[in-house]
Design goal:
The protein has helices at about 5-40, 45, 50-60, 65-80, 80-90, 95-100, 110-120, 120-130, 155-175, 180-195, 195-210, 235-245, 290-305, and strands at about 140-145, 150, 265-270, 285-290, 310-315, 315-320. The protein has about 325 residues and is mainly alpha-helical. The strands form three sheets. The protein has a two-stranded antiparallel sheet with strand order 1-2. Strands 3-4 form a two-stranded antiparallel ribbon. Strands 5-6 form a two-stranded antiparallel ribbon. A hairpin with a 5-residue loop joins strand 1 (about 140-145) and strand 2 (about 150). Helix 4 crosses helix 6. Bound molecules: zinc ion (2 copies). One zinc ion binds near residues 260, 262, 289 and 292. One zinc ion binds near residues 252 and 288.
């Protein structure tokens, strides 16, 4: 190969790399734009995902780290549209845009856009940490062996001191030095024992059996307001059974059959609304995450314009 041909080949490869990286930046900006629409129209709920994050990870098959970055920047772009534009034309990297999302606002954007396009990554992190000490540390867990992980979290000094205090008390109680790991595991177990609705359900049912209290905590007729805008909470035993059966997770399942399974913000839902004669029975109750719950009711209210008054507090969360 002559020197000439070699240099022309190198030039071609170089041109190709430049072209692709410019398309890559454009694609990032287009994806931000589209995710913003997915978010606004809550397209993820229809596909069975409780959040935009889960949609990006499970449906679009992007990594959790990338999903986190894209979503932070897409949401911030509503307030500061320049972020998207600067990413599209290559003046700002997506990760630098992500670094400034906790601090940039429509009011101070000139200052932060300038910093994010001129400073090095390290300098930029330092500037953000000055005004937002909390956002300078991200939480992550990574595997070190098959079943052990390394956990990284940021902590204020006062919280570390409190954690050390628990560690001291625990060491005292056990008569030996206890590690931070054991301290955290013990606190976690104590919290779950006390507050996890699925565990509470198991305990209660083991204690009292599954015998149902009368199908509904009906109000005495003298207490029933003329227009019923309130319901009494579901009997605790019934709530326990629903939570145990559904394992404290969202049961919303779209046409593709993949259940949402979200385990956070769980609420009890009546499949047939009480306003349409639905009863407080195990069969008519299910658990939804709050996103699918709200969404289901907003669809219902499109259908029957009279569903708005239902929202009541049960023993451990909203029901409806
Ligand atoms: Zn859900
Ligand atoms: Zn409901």
């Amino acid at each position: 190969m002559s020197a000439n041909t070699a240099s022309s080949l190198a030039q071609q490869i170089h041109q190709r790399a430049i072209e692709l990286s410019s398309r890559y930046k454009k694609a990032e900006a287009d994806l931000l734009e589209t995710l913003e629409q997915v978010d606004r129209h809550r397209v993820y709920l229809k596909h069975g995902h409780a959040s935009l994050f889960l949609y990006v990870v499970r449906e679009l098959r992007l990594s959790e780290g990338v999903a986190y970055i894209l979503i932070s920047v897409a949401r911030k772009s509503r307030e500061v549209p320049e972020l998207k534009e600067l990413i599209a034309n290559g003046s700002m990297t997506l990760s630098n845009a992500r670094r400034i999302t906790p601090v940039i606002t429509a009011g101070n954007k000139t200052e932060w856009l300038e910093k994010a396009t001129t400073l090095s990554q390290r300098q930029l992190e330092k500037e953000v940490a000055k005004v937002r000490p909390k956002s300078s540390t991200t939480e992550q867990a990574s595997y070190v062996t098959g079943d052990r992980l390394k956990l990284e979290i940021g902590l204020f000094e006062k919280d570390l001191l409190a954690l050390r205090r628990v560690q001291d008390l625990l060491s005292q109680a056990r008569g030996r030095a206890v590690s931070l790991e054991e301290t955290i595991a013990t606190m976690t177990e104590a919290h779950l024992k006390r507050f996890d609705p699925v565990r509470r359900a198991k305990r209660q049912i083991a204690k009292k059996g599954t015998a149902l209290v009368a199908p509904t905590g009906k109000l005495d007729s003298s207490q029933v307001p003329a227009k019923r805008t309130q319901r009494s909470p579901l009997p605790a035993n019934l709530q326990h059974q629903v939570r145990l059966r559904d394992q404290g997770r969202c049961t919303y399942t779209p046409k593709n059959g993949k259940r949402c399974n979200q385990s956070r913000w769980i609420e009890v839902h009546h499949k047939i609304p009480v306003s349409e004669g639905g009863k407080d029975t195990l069969e008519n109750l299910t658990t939804y995450c709050s996103a699918h719950h709200d969404w289901t009711h907003s669809k219902d209210s499109e259908r029957t314009a009279q569903h708005a008054t239902l929202s009541l507090l049960g023993e451990s969360g909203r029901t409806g």
